[in-house]
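ingest -> validate -> predict -> emit
validate: passed (alphabet ok, no gaps, 94 aa)
predict: started
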Amino acid sequence: MVCTTIRKGVECLFMTAKGCSYTDGICYEIAEKCDGCNRSVEFPSGWFCTASPEPSVKWKSGNCNLASHIASAASAKTAKINPLKASKRASKKK
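emit:
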């Protein structure tokens, strides 16, 4: 349904016929860490996240999984090599 409380005119999963069903009946403004994210949108009542009704909860245990402004570093895993097998492979190549 379309939000009629804070983010007026935007589709919201928590909106029901009785009003907003989220905690306290409102969405919360973005956290400081959300600055620069593509999902943050400005409304007349402030800046809000389009993906989460309470963005500060997403940052509690590290980085937000929806943050578009944070690039996750892909760690290159090095496989554990058995030295005996490696020496046998090297001797076959010669």
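The CA atoms of residues 87 and 93 lie 10 Å apart.
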